[in-house]
Amino acid sequence: MMERSLDAKRVLVVARRVVRQLKRDKRTIGLITFAPIFLLILFGYALSGEMSGINLGIVDFGGQDALKVHLQSVDDFDLLYLGSESDAEKLIVEGRLHGAVVIRKEEVRILLDGSSPQITSSIMAESRAGLLSPESLREGGRGEVLDGGVGRGADDIEMGPEIVQRYVYGYDLEMMDSVGPAVLGLVVFFFTFITAAISFLRERTQGSLEKFMVSPLSRPEMVAGYLLGFSLFALLQSATTFLVVVFVFGVPMNGNPLTAFAVILLLGAGALVLGAFFSNFAKTEFQVVQFIPMVILPQVVLSGVWWPLQSIPAFIRPISYILPLTYSSDALRAVMLKGAGISDILVPDLLFLVGFFVIVFGAATLMLKREVG
Amino acid sequence: MNDGENSAPDSFEDYSIVASGLKKSFGKLRVLNDLSVKIPGGTTYCLLGPNGSGKTTLIRAVAGLLRLDGGDLRVLGEPVSNVRRVYPRIGYMTQHKALYPDLTLRENMEFYAGLYGIEGVRMSERISELLDMVDLAEHSDRITGDLSGGMYQRLSLACTLIHEPDLLLLDEPTVGIDPILREAFWRFFDDLAEKGATILITTHLMDEAERCKIVGYMRAGKMLAEGSPEELKRLAGLRPVLKLWVNDPEASASILSSRGFDVRRVEDVLQVTIEDHQQLKEVLDQVVPLDLRLIEPSIGDAFLRLAEDESR
Ligand SMILES: Nc1ncnc2c1ncn2[C@@H]1O[C@H](COP(=O)(O)OP(=O)(O)OP(=O)(O)O)[C@@H](O)[C@H]1O
Ligand SMILES: [Mg+2]
């Protein structure tokens, strides 16, 4: 059976109804508007303390046990274990690490953020201390520091690692700068997902879905109507969150705000169809709430909102790469912090978000069809 | 795509619904068991049957909401696989009310009107007309969720009628509606049928069944009996019963029995089955009652009888 084409009028009829319903629900409106602000303030202060230490990345390819033990013992260092030097470099550029130590048997490379000299010297001092400690001397290590750029140790006479020091000029960033843009996506995703899942569940339980099916309204029209209606609220919500992020927390807005809104809307569209899809697996609103740990929590933990993706163990990381929030966070950071334009975030971020939306949209409409017994 | 309106057999044209040999099982449960039914256009057709006999399932099949396991079904001339084409002409009222509790009555109606492309003046006229009909005009701006159960049901019916459908599928539309309004509904249904609409309705109320042109009695997914209410009573072998209050029930009963009447004694009341007026006169010649009452059989009795016959 062929699905008829989308009729704009019917889509608008559904959208208007959705808006009327949400408008009347003052509590939800309040929640949509103020909850993100509340959350941000909470996170903002909770996280502001985290930057007191020095964030040091460790890329460990084996060897130099003494150095590792020593670095772990330094109280001021918050160590973050990473998979590759380029990951470390990226995080330094983004301002999320102050430096990184890349450990190999034959060589120790130290990446330093050139913009904060005090922290740089502290990282250098501790690394040297780790290599010169009695245990490491017994291992046959030796310490030599070669300053300047990507230089390599020239006189490698004795056995032991070379120390290579490299400066990377990072962005002097506070925690909120990196978390803010990501949280923007998180709140929109969370509220849209839950509201959509409950709305679609109600369509089913109150019998209106069955009634639609025996009307000229097609399933894609219905979902499209919801998308249109919800996008107004997603915009409202992202606007308030956005203002707080930029004006209260002083997160820079270097790119075009419209680009950021486009990313948020795209993410919200994905959250809506995901909610519609999941509503099929719930019988009650109580069961919808049970989706939070399943759908929302992994995104909170694995999508790089709070800590960088690169610090997530490699065997879990594939999951991160199928979560829409991973891409929205990346895109929003790029737009807000680096002033990226649409073309800069097209691949992979926008492409993934569009793909995610299209696939889940299809799945959600198919699931609605399943109603036919 | 278009399999030719011209090639459709003529016999189908007079029927809004033609079903033959419908089969549907949910797991092991056979809900439609080789069911056949023809529903002429412009008729009120009532589906009766105990809970779980498959009435709602049949209606859902007609609405195209069911993947049938077998059988042939045409709705308004279209095979059920193409029933979407005639959705603009169908009004479907589910056993659920299908209303948005957080919208006002008018907003609910506007929504359903919009789905059928009804807008502007035509929409507001139609809405006032229907709200009057279901006697909710003065509540039109209230929040639907605040309504009483019967009012909810009335609004649901109004929403179903918004696009003046040719075929109405009404699954227990009068549940919870007070007798006065129920009467108004039925007059309205008769009116619609007179104008050519076909109404397929389910109910558990015998007086409602009695008002329909055709009644079909379903049981375990089969159409057990079908016909006008009168035909069905005759089919069930039901005749009027004369109740007699007499001084000496014992003696009167034996007199009537000896004359070949079918007499039953319930307490001090005699119940005599009679065929016609001639027999009525004969009975009254034999006994002089203190009081009497002639009881016409109801369609409910007919179904009790049919159900008994079936289980035997
Ligand atoms: N989707 C379904 N899945 C499983 N079983 C179903 C489904 N729909 C109906 N049934 C079963 O089919 C049988 C017939 O149900 P149906 O709703 O058609 O009965 P009904 O005649 O409308 O009853 P009522 O008078 O109570 O409304 C019941 O036993 C019901 O449990
Ligand atoms: Mg039913």
Can you give me a brief rundown of this structure?
The complex is a heterodimer of chains A (373) and B (312). Chain A is an alpha/beta fold.
* Share of helix of chain A, binned: 55-70%
Strand content of chain B: 25-35%
Total count of helical runs of at least 4 residues of chain B: 11
Could you name the ranges of chain A where pLDDT drops below 50 across 5 or more consecutive residues? Answer: 140-158
Which sheet architecture does the biggest sheet of chain A show?
Answer: 6 strands, mixed
Radius of gyration of chain A: 25 Å
Shape of chain B: globular
Q: Which structural class fits the helix and strand makeup of chain A?
A: alpha/beta
CATH superfamily of the largest domain in chain B: P-loop containing nucleotide triphosphate hydrolases
The CATH architecture assignment of the largest domain in chain B turns out to be 3-Layer(aba) Sandwich
Low-confidence stretches of chain B: 1-11
Provide the β-strand percentage band of chain A. 5-15%
Question: What is the H/E order of chain B?
Answer: HEEEHEEEHHHEHEHEEHEHEEHEH
Oligomeric state as shown: heterodimer
Helical residue percent of chain B?
A: 25-40%
Instruction: Report the bound ligands by name, code or SMILES.
Output: adenosine-5'-triphosphate, magnesium ion
Number of strands of chain A: 6
Mean pLDDT of chain A: 83
In what order do the strands lie side by side in the largest sheet of chain B? 6-7-8-3-9-10
